[in-house]
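cron nightly-structures :: item 1 of 1
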Amino acid sequence: DGLADAAAVAELLDDSRETGPRLATNGGVDYLRWRYEPLLGDYRAVVEEEGGRLTGLAIFGLRRRGELWEATVCELFVHPGDHGTASRLMRQVARSAPVDYLATLPAAGSAQARMLARAGFLPSPVGARALGVTPYQEGLLPDPRQRGSWALSFGDVERLELC
């Protein structure tokens, strides 16, 4: 269980989240346990440690897409700029089950998007998912109508679809 050491996971979550004016889910360990409850899907986790310290965590789901098996990386937590850990986590996900491909949805323009691009991930040729928003007042900051204002994970978007 990648979430077993709650204190280590909480420390990694605090350090890995990008700061700045973006809309994001600010969940802790309890939220992740609730969100990736096994009854909701085949969710798994892989971790990276260095010197007994948690340095990375990836939570992913497995599902069949037609004839192919997909591993959807729902959450990826690494220390800022730690490209090596991000790459090793992606390799662990790919080796953890007989999957045909990996998919994820990093926030546009984020450090995570840059790390995944360095790890070999490419934008989908069919485009990204659309999210409709209705601001009930003007002058909201960050502006929810701007794509760059959002920092949702694949797991966040997937959860919105389940509602």
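cron nightly-structures :: done
The longest helix spans residues 83-96.
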